[in-house]
Design goal:
With 333 residues, the protein is of the alpha/beta class. 44% of the residues lie in helices and 17% in strands.
Amino acid sequence: MPTIVEVAAQAGVSTATVSRVLSQPERVSAQTRERVLEVVHSLGYTPSVIPRMLRTLRAAKILLTVPDISNPFFASVIRGAEEAARDAGYAVVLGDTGHDPQLEDQYAEMLARREVDGLIFLGHRLPGTLEPLLSRQGAAAPIVNGCEYSPELGVPSVHIDNAAAGEEAIEHLIGLGHCDIGVITGPAISPLTRDRLSGATRAAERHGLRDRLQVRGGDYSAPSASAQAADLLAQGVTAIFCFSDEMAIGAISAIRQAGLSCPEDVSVVGFDDLPLAGFFQPALTTIAQPKGRIGRHAVELLVDILRGSGSELRQITLPHELVVRESTSRVRR
């Protein structure tokens, strides 16, 4: 029975090239491919099934971890990821970490045990258990971040320009005549908070309003924003920029509880453009993120790595959009 060594010798190529012709023909030039296949047929060479199976062994699963699965923003990201994964022949394993570093590490161990082929994490922390893998493989490590871009992570990422988005939100409010603006951020540890606040501050400084920008910390939830908005209203703000639509809804609730109305007394801008944002009363002015595309592009980045074609550290910045609806209006003089 002929061997792969004999095929390679007669075709004038390496055994690795013969193997590629039989397993990944698209990676070999047409001329070389035809020459090798002619020798394979003439010698009657049949590759061993077991080694081929071992070389191509994969779980056909992608792990996607979410910091808070109850947050409706992630639903659209997950849907986009699942659609792209199915197209590429992978299933998605979903993990809700609840912002818990220990849970993040536990899920990440699935990659180390090869129970999944790659990991997409939507939080801001790289699981500590994956640091050795990232050190060894660099950009070839099957790890991708979505949403919370931070260059310090050293992994491919898909995100929007959060600083530019924060700047655009404040510019919109200033353009309506608002000078006393409140900002309700996410957790201080989050890169989203850092970038969005940086953009918001830059816009205020450009108009000489930095000292009139009042910043409060939230956690992306409606209850946290409701409490912070009540304090901002007591300080006399005429507009509030929230770092999530959920917080914007909480802020509008606080405005109503204070006997005021939105936008007649206080304008509100959200972030994310959740599916219900346009149906809320008043319909919410917000920064729209391409949520489904974030999930889809994250999977495509990961699949490129798994197929050996993602050798560079790629960062994809997708466009955002300020969607102006009914929750913002000109300031009362």
